[in-house]
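BACKBONE GEOMETRY TOKENS
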Amino acid sequence: MADQLDSLYDDKNQKVFDNIVILTDRKSLDKNIQDDLNNFAHLKNKINIAKKAKDLAKHLENNRDIIVSTIQKFGYIQDKLTSNENLKNRKIAFLIDEAHRSQEGKMALKMRTFFTEDGQEYEQEEDEPSNDEDIADKLKNLDISHQVLVAFTATTTPKTVAYFGKPFDIYSEEEAIEEGYILDVAQNIISYQTLYHLRLTQAIPDNAFPAGVLAQALNVLAFNDEALIQYKSEVIVKLFIEQVANTLKGKGKAMVVASSRPAGLKFYNTLKLILEKKELPYKVLFAFSDYSDPNTNESIEEIKVNQLGKSLIEDLFDTDEYRLLVVANKFQTGFDQPLLTAMFLDKAIKGINAIQTVSRLNRKHVDKEQDDILVVDFTNSTKNIFKAFNQHRKGSPYKEKEPDKSVLDEVYQAAIDTEVFSPTDISHYVEAYSEAEDAAKLRESELDALLSNINQEYKAKFSSFFTEADDRKAYIALLNRYIKLYYFIAQFFELEQSLHEFIVFAEVMTCVLVKKGKVSELKLLLKHIEVSKGAVTYQGNVSNTGKTGKAAERTGQYQAKEIPKTTIQKAIEDIEQKYKISKEEAIFIREVCAEVSALEEIKAKVTDNKHNILFLNSYELTVQKQVTNSYLERELWAQLDDPIYKDQGGIFSIMSKTVIDTIIFAKAA
């Protein structure tokens, strides 16, 4: 489309569009589009990549033909561009990738209003042209005084449809599959269920927490369990060897979607160890954003974990030896790798996130067949995944609906009705903020200092008004709700001054009123919970029936709902009732490792030879025999005969190394 719009001329031989600006909201997508554009040889001298914000400003000022940028860069160049009046009259076509995300937030509002005089919206024509000639004629006669926005998405949301209107052109997933442009990744899913029981390691207060938040926190804790991850890793390697390794003439690759970055790191280390123990010629990478270890505060960096050097992780994964990629959010969506044929899901997904995630596998490749696609789910999310795909198969499931300003009004009124801060308080704060902002000239450190006294005043008022922590959280949640709504609604309506003032107040107060550096009570209590019993049970190969569930529409009304609460003790009891785990299903990895690590003879041998690598490597066989004896004593005959346990590089082998490492680490500590 960028190529075609750039080549359009009117009857006076003037270009219809001065600039074509392709916008994405993520760097990985930005790179994908750049790579695709480079395939258009005749556009070589027309394409301008904005790697930095100053590049975007320069390309716009120099009136370049096709500009590729992330939408975030607009935030850095507002002052510079505002001083250039020529840009106000520039005829620009914005091509927006992943419209379901890119139309949201402050950046979208700034970008949309910047190229329009006094923030006026571009009036779209009501009737849509029916063929290419009509399109050309319409563009010739169209008075494009400012901008045209064309957005692309495979997964619309109600907000997308409200912002852009109903799609003027649909090329559905169903059509694309039928015509052979993509593969169907939602035909069959191999389903496993992860079962777990939890226990408290010490007595904790009987405090209540929001039931949904607590359930999610306990689920994340369970999915971070090393024993469950080890078992799943063995399943992953087994299925990779059997169903993935030989696809695409021996080049097929797999993605493992982890529930969190700590869990992803455990998957990476375990898979790496299994591949080494089995002496397989495959390597694994872990894609993630850098973070601090929640227990040690150690900085965990992608470049160090993967030993990337100067290489990009996506480039390294493109090489033949790297066949498995563990991801934690990063690359879960928007990642383009045609060699991917398999996905192992250890993170529950639903809705458009399910489509965006599993669709990493749908890219065509000359050696890729429909039968090569393998999706394995460990989270019992199969029905949700099929439901999401079926809803979007033929296009958007949502009807066009006018944005409703009353929702913003209601949230604002709900905040005012709490009476913690009056409209006068808000106006007073905004005035103080504006004066401080002018004095500080946008230097954040100076701005904070100038606002310190009034921030403390409002913070004290907030704390004295709400004596209960839940009430404080509810008010801050209300502010966050307002912020999210404001930047969407403000693109369609002229708002009252009070609403404009409240956005300034809300954005600052969400930072001021939240206590920084304090770990939440729930997070502290979670440290006293561990998995007592776990299992991973095979559910079978599930086929998509094609049934389409009704897409949920937004009501357009704001209603404050009472959030159900429960205690940690009650939640743990409910989990035990929900997940029945038999002795035959249970994974005893953790218990057996602890038991063998405590044997005095083994402790002494390992401790005395902790620096003798050759001895320790050979001693693993002795430890492994003791591990299997522990399973014999428990009469776990099925595990003793299971290849996942007994084969080279299997669970028994990995457990023996874990026992040795545990003893060495304990002595070192």
